[in-house]
Write a structure and sequence with these properties.
81 residues; mainly alpha; two-stranded antiparallel ribbon; 2 strands; 7% strand; elongated; binds zinc ion
Length: 81
């Protein structure tokens, strides 16, 4: 998770609650979670698996970008020598 997203989450956290069912955040003034209240148990499992996959792909994308940045920095360094 990037710094920017964390800052946004912290800022909004007073108005959000975490759903015990799907572990996502939704507005405190709502009784039902906006993410999973319409899902049955099977859909919820698929939904959570999908969410974890999404988090995983975000993490690998971050790693890929970092490696690319190091690679480009290395190329620049070599071209200056
Ligand atoms: Zn939920």
């Amino acid at each position: 998770m990037s710094m920017g997203v964390n800052t946004i989450w912290r800022g909004k956290s007073s108005k959000l609650q975490r759903c015990k069912r799907c572990e996502r955040h939704f507005a405190k003034d709502l009784d039902n979670c906006t993410h999973c209240s319409e899902l049955n148990e099977q859909q919820l499992i698929a939904f959570k698996a999908d969410y974890e996959k999404q988090l995983e792909s975000n993490a690998s994308l971050g790693r890929y970008l970092l490696i690319s940045a190091i690679f480009i920095a290395g190329l620049l360094l070599v071209s200056f020598l």
